[in-house]
Amino acid sequence: MSIARRVGAPRIVPTRGIPFPTGDPALSPEEERAWRRALVERALEALTTAVAGPTVFAMDGDGSEEETG
Fold first, then answer.
1. CA–centroid distance for 16 within its chain
2. Is residue 32 part of a domain?
3. What does pTM read for this prediction?
4. Domains: count for the chain
5. Neighbours of 35 (CB within 10 A)
6. CA-to-CA distance for 2 and 7, rounded, in angstroms?
7. Dist. CA 57–CA 7, nearest whole Å
8. End-to-end CA separation in angstroms for the chain
């Protein structure tokens, strides 16, 4: 269970992890820029979506699924 879910955050947008919340040093600069843009777009979607409890807005293709609590 994520820290965000444990504290009851209503909207959760997962990232690469605590050391690199808005980036990924393993990516090339161009790939990282595209990843960051997708992250911001997903965060904007989360902010404009009504939720009734903790909701995870997973990035497409990251292996996790969008889930609602």
1. 8
2. yes
3. 0.73
4. 1
5. 18
6. 9
7. 17
8. 12
